[in-house]
Amino acid sequence: TAGISAAYCAARHGAKVVLVERWPSLGGMATGALVNIWHTSDRTKQVIFGFVQEAIDRGGKFVRRLPSYPTAYETHDFDCEGMKVVFDRMLRDAGVRVFCDLKAIESIVEGNRIRGVLVDTKTGRKALLGRIVIDATGDGDVAANAGLPFDYGRLEDGRVQGMTMMFDLRGAVPSGGNQAPREAARRVLQTMRELRDRGQFPQFNDRHAQHYLASGSNGLYNLCPASGSALDEEELTRLSADARAHVYQYLDLWRKELPHFAQAEIVQMGHGIGIRESRRVRGIKTLDTQMVISAAKQPDAIGHGFWMIDIHDPTGTGYTTHSDHKPGVWLKPGESYHIPLGICLNRQIPNLAVVGRCASTTHEGLASVRLQSHCMVMGQGVGTCAAMALASGIDLAQVDVGKLQATLRKDGVYLEEVAV
C-alpha cells in the first residue's frame, strides 16, 4: 500500500511512474496477506485522509466504516479481493505503468546516485531506469542492495516482531451471547493453553482466541503467530508452511470440541504470511518511542500517526503489547504524532527514498508507524515530494517543505501544528 500510494500521488502531480510488484496482484500485505483493517482516527476524530480517504471512497462497496468510528483507532475494514481491483483502477487512472510478477533483483548505482533496478522478465534480464527510485518493498531490498545502512531487530537480541498467518473461517454459528457456547469456548481455550504449554499444540494469540471462540466469529482471524527472519527465504518458506498447518490444528480441535464450530471451514489463507518487521533503513531522522508517545510535532511533517507501540512477541508466542494496556505504549485519545519526511530520506543517495515498514525507525517506533494507513501517509508524502523534485530538477531533500506541505493539504492530507 505504501508503494501504491507513492506511485499514484507522484503520477497525479505529473511524474512518469513505473510500479514493480513481486506478487501477481496489487496490495501487498493488505490484499495478499489478508490484513484487511485500516486505522484513521486518534480515537476522537479522523486524522488520516488524503490518499487513504481516496482509497476508501474509491473502494465503494468493498470498504466498510466500522460502527465504533471515530472512537477507536480501527475505522474501516475491506474486502481483500475487491481492493485488488480498486487499486489497479486507481493506478491505471493516474497513468502509472504497473508490472506484476516482477521483482527488483539488483540496484544500479553510479557514484552516489541510483539509476534504477535490474529485473528478470520472461524475456530476460532488463533494466528499469528512473531519475528517482522509491523503495516500497517492505524489507528495504532496493535500498540495502544499493548499499544503504540499515538496522534489524530489537537491541537486546536482534529479533524482529512476530509474523501472523491470517485466515478466513466460515461456517461457524455465532453464539449471539448465549451462555452454553461461551462456556464451551472457555473450556476449549483452557485445553489449548494446557496443550500449548506442554508443547503439544501450536502457539496462538490468547486474547484474540478468547474473542473468536466465544463469539463464533466468521471472517478473518488474526490468531496464528510465527517467529523468524523475512530475509531468509528458506526459513520464511518453513515458517509459512508450519503456520498453515497450525491453522488446521486449531480447526480440528474446534470442530471436535465446539458444536458451534462443527461445520466451520477454512476458505482462504494469506497468499503470504503477514510480516511486521525486517530491515529499517537508516534515514535523516529516526522515529523512536519518545517521538510517538509524546505526540511529537515535526517541521518536515507529511502526515499524522497515532497507533500505540504495538509489539508482537519476536519469539512467536502470540503475545502483543496491545493486549495488556501497560502505560508507556499508548497515546492519549485525541493525540497524534507527526510522521516526518526525514525517516524516508537518507544522506548517502539523494535520489533514493524508502516508504513503508522499511523506513528509519527504532524497533519500538516501527511498532507504531508500520500500520497500512501510516505507510500510505509516507507513500503520499514521498510520492508528492518526488514529483515536485522532478519538476524542479532538484533532489528530494531540496524540495521546499512548506510548499510540499501546502500541496499535501490541497490533496486532502490532514496536517496540523507543524513545528518550526
Detail the topology: elements first, then pairings.
Blueprint: H1 2-12, E1 18-20, H2 29-32, E2 37-39, H3 50-59, E3 63-65, E4 74-78, H4 80-94, E5 97-99, E6 104-110, E7 113-121, E8 124-129, E9 133-135, H5 141-145, E10 150-152, E11 163-170, H6 179-197, H7 206-215, E12 219-226, H8 233-257, E13 265-269, E14 279-281, H9 289-293, E15 301-305, E16 337-340, E17 352-354, H10 363-369, H11 372-392, H12 401-410
Parallel strand pairs: 1-5, 9-17
Antiparallel strand pairs: 2-4, 3-4, 6-7, 7-8, 10-14, 11-12, 11-13, 15-16
Mean pLDDT: 97
Across the major sheet, the strand order is 2-4-3
Give the C-alpha Rg: 21 Å
Helix content estimate: 25-40%
User: Could you tell me how far the N terminus lies from the C terminus, measured between alpha carbons in angstroms?
Assistant: 30 Å
Query: What is the H/E order?
Result: HEHEHEEHEEEEEHEEHHEHEEHEEEHHH
Biggest sheet overview: 3 strands, antiparallel
Q: Which word captures the global form?
A: globular
Q: How does this structure look, described?
A:
With 420 residues, the chain is α+β, with helices and mostly antiparallel strands. It has helices at residues 2-12, 29-32, 50-59, 80-94, 141-145, 179-197, 206-215, 233-257, 289-293, 363-369, 372-392, 401-410, and strands spanning 18-20, 37-39, 63-65, 74-78, 97-99, 104-110, 113-121, 124-129, 133-135, 150-152, 163-170, 219-226, 265-269, 279-281, 301-305, 337-340, 352-354. The strands form 7 sheets. The protein has a 3-stranded antiparallel sheet with strand order 2-4-3. Strands 6-7-8 form a 3-stranded antiparallel sheet. Strands 12-11-13 form a 3-stranded antiparallel sheet. Helix 11 (372-392) packs across helix 12. The longest helix is centred in the middle third of the chain and has 25 residues, at 233-257. It is globular. The protein starts with a helix and ends in a 10-residue tail after the last helix. The mean pLDDT is 97.
